[in-house]
Amino acid sequence: MDLDRLTCVQWYCMVYQDATVEFLIFDVWCFVSLLHKKYGVMANQSEVTPFFPRVIAALPTPCKEAGVVDPEGMTRLSQEVSRRGCDGLFVLGSTGEMVLIDEDDRRPLTVAARTGGGDNIQVLVGIGGFGAKQAIRYARMAADDQADVAVAMAPFFQVLGQSELIEHFERIADKSPIPIGIYHHLRMTTSFTVETIAQLSRHPNIVAYKDTSADPKRLQEIINATAGTAFHIYQGNEPLLLESMNGGAYGCVSALATISPEWHRELIDAAVRGDLALAEHYQKQLNRLVALFRISGVRTSLSHFVHTLKVGAVHQGWLTSAASLLPGFQPTVEFEDAIQKVLNEVLVEPLEIR
User: Fold this and answer.
1) How many CB atoms lie within 10 A of CB 30?
2) 55-346 placed in CATH 1.50.10.10
3) Which one of 69, 205, 210, 302 is CB 3.0 to 4.6 Å from 234, fit for a cystine?
4) What is the rounded CA–CA span in Å between residue 255 and residue 58?
5) d(CA 182, CA 264)
C-alpha cells in the first residue's frame, strides 16, 4: 500500500468513524514497509524487488602483510567495486578464505565492508561450514555489524544426509536475526539435492542460493523447482553467467567482480533488459579474464587462486598489497608474470558503465 492509498483509507475511516479499521490498516502498512526496507520483499513474497542485489562481488581478504588482515584495505576495495557497479559484497566466503580468519578479525572486516559499500548495497557475510551453534553465533555477530545476509555452507569434512542437511539449515535460519543464504561449493563433502534446495527455499528466512557446480542443467532444475518464490538464485561460475540469467537466475556472485565490476554490471543489466548482443559481448570479455584461473599452478592451493584476484585489484589501483593470509605462500616469478600477462592483455577495454 502506498501513501496515497493509505491517506484514502484514513479519510474513509474518519468519515465513517471506524478507528479500529484505521489502526489495523496502518499497522499492516507499517509492517509491510519494514519488510520491504529490510529484506527487499513485499507482502506477496513471490514479488522480486530491486532491493536485493543482482551483482555481488566475492571479495578476497586484503592483508597489510602476510598473515595480517587489513580492514582499511577492505574498506577501499568495497568502496571501489560498489561505486563501479556491484550492489552486493560477499565477504568471508571461500574467496575470502574464511577458514583462516578468527573471530577477532571477522568483525572488523565485516564493518569495513559495510563502511566501504555504504547504505545502498547489501553486505553478505560467510558464516562458514561449521556446526549450527557456531554458524548462529557468527550470524548474530554479522547482524550486529550491520550485515544484511549470512551465508552458510554444509558442514566441513562430515558427510550429511539430506534430512540432516535440511534440519541443519532450518535450525540456523530459525535462530538467525538476518536472512540466510545457501552456498553450494564443489569442495564441500555434502551436496544439496534439487529437492533439498526446493524445501529450504520455502523457509521464510532462507532467501538465496549460490551455485558453483558448473552444471547448467542442474541449476536450471533448481530454478524451476523454486519458481514462484522469493528465493534468489545466483550463479558463481563466471563462464555460465549469461546462460544462467537466460534460464531465470537472479544474478551473480563472482570473484572476478573484484577486478571487473563494470563488466558484470553491464552483463547482468543487459540480460535483464533482454539485450542479448550486449550481454554476449560482456560475457566474452569475462571469459577472457577467466584465463586467470587457468594459469599453470593456480590450482596448487587456494592461496594461488586468491592471489590472482589480489594482484588484479592492485593492478586496478584498488589495493596496495597482494599479501597472503598464509605467510608460507610463496608465488613463483613465473606465476606472477603469467598473472600480469593476462591482466595486461584483457583489461584494455575501458571498464565503464554505458
Assistant:
1) 11
2) no
3) 210
4) 5
5) 21
User: Which residues, including other chains, have CB under 8 Å from residue 169's CB and lie 6 or more apart?
Assistant: 152, 180, 182, 200, 203, 206
Question: What pLDDT, in 10s, does the model give residues 281-328?
Answer: 999 999 999 999 999 999 899 999 999 999 999 999 999 999 999 999
pLDDT at 24 over 50: no
Rounded to 10 degrees, what is the CA torsion of 288, 296, 255, 82?
-70
Convert the pLDDT of each residue in 163-216 to its tens digit: 999 999 999 999 999 999 999 887 778 889 999 999 999 999 999 999 988 889
- Average the pLDDT over 75-86 and give the result: 98
Contacts of 343 (CB under 8 A, 6+ apart): 259, 292, 311, 312, 315
3 state SS for the chain: CCHHHHHHHHHHHHHHCCHHHHHHHHHHHHHHHHHHHHHCCCCCCCCCCCCCCCEEEECCCCEEECCEECHHHHHHHHHHHHHCCCCEEEECCCCCCHHHCCHHHHHHHHHHHHHHHCCCCEEEEEEECCCHHHHHHHHHHHHHCCCCEEEECCCCCCCCCHHHHHHHHHHHHHHCCCCEEEEECCCCCCCCCHHHHHHHCCCCCEEEEEECCCCHHHHHHHHHHCCCCCCEEEECCHHHHHHHHHHCCCEEEECHHHCCHHHHHHHHHHHHHCCHHHHHHHHHHHHHHHHHHHCCCCCCCHHHHHHHHHHHHHHHCCCCCCCCCCCCCCCCHHHHHHHHHHHHHHCCCCCCCC
The Cα 270–Cα 268 span in angstroms is: 5
> What CA–CA distance (Å, rounded) separates 259 from 53?
18
